[in-house]
Design brief:
heterodimer; A: about 250 residues; alpha/beta; 3-stranded antiparallel beta sheet; about 25% strand; disordered C terminus; B: about 550 residues; mainly alpha; 23 helices
């Protein structure tokens, strides 16, 4: 049995009267691509923020690489590459400054790889981040998240609002990361065809509960209707719409 | 809603309904009391200036401050940001820029004028001998609010410029009004000075909103890169030797430049005053003191940019993921901020301490300053005079740094309610200080206060130390800082307290001030609880 990269046990989180996560249990072994899918406000980002230590578990536990991300942020975050939908890179920095600044935090930063990505993404070293287009900012965020070859790559709705070419770059990054043996990707997205294209495992979340979790091929086989294998989108509509019967469906 | 204007007015009213109800409630209660008292012919003489101030003027001033906050949309944005504080969501509405700028100004003007009218009516009692002007204070309120709106909505090229512009301009208007009162200007003269400013402020506000609506935000930072290079922290071309250095560079670029840049801008104007000193020693002393206080005053405003946890200073107060996901401890992030504030303070004071002698020399008042220093040395002795001057400068430098860091524990929480609440409490306390001092003097309670001073100071020390112990316990339990850092911090603080105590004993060697009081004052003066709480605040923000 491979070692767990992420282990979430009985995680519950409430924001006022809203239950964002309800007794979530999750165990993600190393070396696979996990697609996290769910409707808006299903709890995907809340789960990711717990994994990054940006939210403290109200109930239950979160362990990443066997560590509590709130208690030991340095050990956990130095091994995670993260790209958020918000893309809040500091607009006042130039591309070369952001590379230089980020490099200081990651001992495993690979200059050659960073330069390779920069050239592939056609990013001008002297350009200010605030002057980059949305797609270029996403590429810049990807560069910073990938250049130290993180053990765990977390992408929170990275393709949202981006054109197909940038989305292709992001998928390419996922594929590159998997190519490095033993690395793990947690990929949240609304674009189910993308998830279907790269994910080995799918975690479907609805109303703060995990309604479906398992290998993509197994899930698709188990939802076969009249001999036809449905798409992930069809399974999503069928499962995310119904009330969750158990914590882990 | 029958019109866009009505919808915007409704939104303003609905958003602040509880605050507005509180204001109206207070005024209604006051009016009811007055009605009862006057109708029953009860003989009450509200002719004490202090009673008038405490009963009506102080609450009205607080409400006026509140009006400024809501009608400038100051509660929605970041004062220190370069971007306009006018809510961007309103720019997409199908209404003209004239309406966007004019309507909040009109509503604010009506509210400010109404507040004055009601406050004046309530302040005057049948047997009162106080003379209260009829119109001009109301116009002044409208003018101050209009300028606050115009300058708040303007986009600026440097972080923190808005605070500086608003404070400078409103203070200038206030100063002119005080000067006019000093020369007993008539109501007509006051109105003639104030009224033309309303359309002027409107034009500036309209221009500001139009620029903001077009997304036009100037960038003046390029003009100050020389200053950043002078700081030696920016412009790094090689790789950072450690994450701590990288983070310190980040903080410098984000907020560290504000203080030295603003000091560099203000300083030449202040130093020009040396040329009008002539042979007046009093003027020279006043102007030098003014220059020395400048970094402290600017630091009070620059502190807003230091405690902004955002990546860009226009961010909301919550910690953005870019910073929150740095593989750095909360203590390391705070340490970078503290190092930056030290560098910022040092650079600002380097400018001041280099510029003063040069200005004294060029303006020809250096001999006057030297003569003054020589006389002081003759009275207290040369060693004592030198040490005294050094201590004064060190006290100014320490105060500047203290201003920059003492609100970190509030700003870093990222809780808008807490931040705005603390600003409101501070403004209210500042509003109360003047009348309170006046009341103490008028009612001849200075002696009582002096006698009670040790008790008051002891209570404050008790509160401070209790808070410090609670914070230290939390820091220890949460492992936010290492045991070594805790012990080192406590040792450094104790050393600073004893050093300050030694200085105070040496300087104030008089039987009238007991030594234990000096010790208590030293404990109060050295930052401890609020500074120690900064890592807890950041952790509360970072791991919500």
């Amino acid at each position: 049995m491979p070692e767990s990269v992420i282990h979430v046990s009985d995680l519950t989180r409430r924001f006022g009267a809203t239950t964002a996560l309800a007794s979530v249990n999750l165990d993600l072994p190393r070396g696979a691509v996990y697609g996290l899918v769910g409707a808006n406000a299903a709890g995907k980002t809340t789960l990711i923020r717990h994994i990054l230590g940006l939210l403290r578990a109200e109930r239950g536990t979160v362990r990443v690489f066997g560590l509590d991300p709130v208690d030991d942020p340095v050990s956990v975050l130095s091994r995670i590459g993260y790209l958020s939908e918000e893309n809040d890179l500091p607009g006042w920095m130039r591309v070369n400054e952001l590379v230089r600044y980020s490099r200081a935090f990651y001992p495993k930063w690979d200059d050659a790889y960073a330069e390779e990505l920069r050239q592939a993404f056609a990013l001008d070293l002297t350009a200010k981040i605030k002057h980059l287009s949305k797609g270029q900012k996403a590429r810049m965020g990807l560069l910073v998240a990938l250049a130290y070859r993180p053990e765990l790559l977390v992408l929170d709705e990275p393709s949202s609002g981006l054109d197909p070419i940038v989305r292709r770059d992001i998928l390419g990054a996922v594929i590159r990361t998997i190519a490095d043996e033993g690395r793990t990707v947690l990929f949240s997205s609304h674009l189910l065809d993308e998830v279907e294209a790269v994910a080995d495992h799918v975690i479907m979340i609805s109303h703060g509960r995990i309604v479906l979790s398992g290998p993509l091929s197994v899930i698709k086989e188990s939802h076969r209707v009249d001999g036809r294998v449905p798409s992930l989108a069809e399974i999503f509509v069928a499962r995310a719409g119904e009330p969750a019967p158990t914590a882990q469906g | 809603m029958r019109s866009a204007a009505a919808a915007i007015a409704w939104e303003l009213r609905q958003r602040h309904r509880w605050g507005l109800i509180a204001v109206a409630g207070y005024l209604i209660v006051l009016a009811a009391i007055k009605l009862v008292v006057v109708s029953r012919g009860i003989d009450i003489k509200f002719d004490s200036a202090a009673t008038f101030a405490l009963g009506v003027a102080v609450p009205s001033s607080a409400y006026f401050t509140y009006f400024i906050a809501i009608f400038t949309f100051g509660l929605d944005g970041d004062l220190a940001a370069r971007q306009s504080m006018y809510p961007a969501r309103m720019f997409t509405r199908p209404v003209s820029t004239t309406l966007l700028a004019g309507l909040p100004m009109l509503l604010g003007g009506i509210a400010a004028a109404a507040l004055w009218t009601v406050a004046r009516a309530l302040a005057l009692w049948p047997a009162s001998s106080i003379e209260v002007p009829v119109i001009w204070p109301g116009i002044l309120a409208v003018v101050l609010l209009a300028w606050a709106q115009a300058l708040t909505w303007m986009p600026y090229g440097l972080p923190g410029a808005r605070v500086f512009a608003v404070v400078l301009w409103l203070t200038t208007i206030d100063a002119i009004v005080i000067l006019a009162l000093h020369f007993e200007a008539s109501e007509a003269v006051m109105a003639a000075f104030l009224l033309p400013q309303i359309p002027l402020a409107y034009l500036v506000a309209r221009y500001a909103v139009a620029r903001a609506r077009n997304g036009d935000v100037p960038d003046w930072s390029g003009g100050f890169t020389w200053l950043a290079r002078l700081g030696g922290v920016s412009g790094v071309r090689e790789r950072f030797r450690s994450p701590a250095r990288a983070q310190a560079w980040f903080e410098w670029r984000l907020s560290g430049k504000s203080l030295p840049v603003w000091v560099a801008i203000v300083l030449p104007f202040e130093l020009l005053l040396f040329w009008v000193v002539g042979t007046s020693k009093v003027l020279l002393l006043k102007f030098v003191l003014g220059v020395l206080f400048t970094p402290i005053i600017i630091a009070t405003f620059a502190a807003a940019t230091v405690s902004t946890p955002g990546v860009n200073v226009d961010d909301s107060r919550g910690l953005p993921p870019f910073i929150a996901t740095r593989p750095a401890t909360n203590a390391q992030l705070i340490a970078a901020k503290l190092k930056t504030t030290l560098a910022s303070t040092a650079l600002a004071w380097l400018l001041v301490l280099v510029a003063i002698p040069i200005a004294l020399q060029w303006s020809g008042v250096m001999p006057l300053a030297l003569e003054r220093s020589r006389r002081f040395a003759e009275v207290v002795g040369t060693p004592r005079a030198v040490v005294f001057l050094l201590l004064v400068v060190m006290a100014f430098i320490a105060s500047t740094w203290k201003q920059l860091v003492q609100t970190l524990y509030i700003g870093l929480t990222g809780r808008a309610g807490l931040i705005k609440g603390s600003i409101f409490v501070t403004l209210t306390l500042l509003t109360l200080i003047g009348p309170a001092v006046e009341w103490i003097i008028e009612t001849r309670r200075v002696g009582t206060l002096w006698n009670a001073l040790p008790t008051i100071v002891a209570v404050l020390v008790g509160l401070k130390m209790s808070a410090a112990v609670w914070i230290a316990t939390r820091l220890y339990r949460s492992r936010l800082v290492s045991d070594r850092t805790l012990v080192m911090g406590a040792a450094c603080w104790s050393a600073a307290v004893f050093a300050l105590y030694g200085v105070l004993v040496w300087m104030l060697d008089t039987p009238h001030i007991p030594r234990y009081l000096l010790m208590l004052l030293a404990i109060l003066a050295i930052p401890l609880a609020r500074l120690s709480a900064a890592p807890l605040s950041l952790a509360w923000n970072r791991h919500r």
